[in-house]
Amino acid sequence: MDPLSGAASVIAVIQLTGVILQICGKYLNNVKSAKHDIQRFQEKLAALSQVLHSLDELIRGSDGNKLTATQDLIDNIAKCSSALTNLKERINPETTQKQMRKWGLRALKWPLARSEVDFAIMELESYKTTFALSLQADQTRLTNSIHKKMDLSRLQIAKQAAFDSYGNQHSECLPGTRIDLLREIEEWAKSPHGKCIFWLNGMAGTGKSTISQTVASRLQDQQLLGASFFFRRGEEDRGTAKKLFPTLTEQMVNRIPQMLPRVQKAMDDDPNISEKVLREQFEKLLLNPLFDIEQREEIKRRVIVIDALDECDSEDDIGIILQLLPQVRKSTSVQLRFLLTSRPELPIRLGFEGITDAHQDLVLHEIEKPVIEHDISLYFEDQFLRLKQRRSFPPDWPGAPATKILVDRAVPLFIAAATICRFISDVKWNPQKRLEAILTDQSTY
């Protein structure tokens, strides 16, 4: 398909998703019994819409006629449009209310059974994956076909710093946990009026890295992730800020190919740019390439996730990083934001005091206790279910009273819950005896 007709087809599907989302909003406000199903359906539909927006941006760009993978999507786009049209008709309140009046019913009722919602979600996920893979393939192809080919290997990067690297395998948040927190971060990431920096802080063991991992994964699925860097104290590459900006730049150019020419120039002008001071690295590798992207190629917003900033070994470098990041607000073509996580240590608190207008924060260990208890309780249930699948225990083991005691012992630290579960499930020992040892021990974990 040619770029113009392709863009028109994609826009039509985007508009269709918008109509269905509005219809779902009406049901959500008036139908309580199916609230969970409606929310699940909305989330998948919104994720599909986000990928379609990214696809539209790429098609409308200056290289729209070079998108070989996207050009093969015409049939899938038509099928997706047809499926969404059918869904719209199925849930249209005017249609459903006519049927209900026929049976003497007046209250608005969600027309899809759970099995139908599950099928619709599976179908939406399939289309989203197809479009996202084509989008990724074309973005990669454009990156590799830049006239002035760039050798990214000249950038000194921390290879294991990205959220999805082998050396950075944090588990993600368990489904059903951190719901409000993750929603707040996602709303900030998508809002046109959000602050430049979202600082998620909490004491050790409150689950910051798990949240970072989850957010980065979700942002990547929605084509909103710019880059990620997970600090880790004591590691040569990840324990310092020396490779922070080169690493972020390398990831950014793979997602925003339009940055390549200016990054190439910075490396040609100074082959040792990765060795320079943080300010020079930031300006020449990240900031100036963002400024050079033409406004007509607007890429909207991207989020960079920086986890465990407190594990950077230089307090001075931490302060410099916090001074530099807000400068991205000057970019008119890419709205770049940063999710930072750390312990609330003094150097970081002082750094944020100097940029109060550029950030918002959330303190993990100040979240209401019932919310934390709920999430940790779900974690224990999940871990014990896994243990029962491996060992012979009754279905109700270890029982609600025992689980309640364990939850009380762990709150507010997720790391305490994880430690307890590892202790109980150690294959070398009897889980029941280890459970009893914890229940009779008055220590906290």
From TrEMBL:
<dbReference type="Pfam" id="PF24883">
    <property type="entry name" value="NPHP3_N"/>
</dbReference>
<dbReference type="InterPro" id="IPR007111">
    <property type="entry name" value="NACHT_NTPase"/>
</dbReference>
<dbReference type="InterPro" id="IPR056884">
    <property type="entry name" value="NPHP3-like_N"/>
</dbReference>
<feature type="coiled-coil region">
    <location>
        <begin position="31"/>
        <end position="58"/>
    </location>
</feature>
<dbReference type="InterPro" id="IPR031348">
    <property type="entry name" value="PigL_N"/>
</dbReference>
<dbReference type="Pfam" id="PF17111">
    <property type="entry name" value="PigL_N"/>
</dbReference>
<keyword id="KW-0677">Repeat</keyword>
<dbReference type="InterPro" id="IPR027417">
    <property type="entry name" value="P-loop_NTPase"/>
</dbReference>
<keyword id="KW-0175">Coiled coil</keyword>
<feature type="domain" description="NACHT">
    <location>
        <begin position="196"/>
        <end position="344"/>
    </location>
</feature>
<protein>
    <recommendedName>
        <fullName>NACHT domain-containing protein</fullName>
    </recommendedName>
</protein>
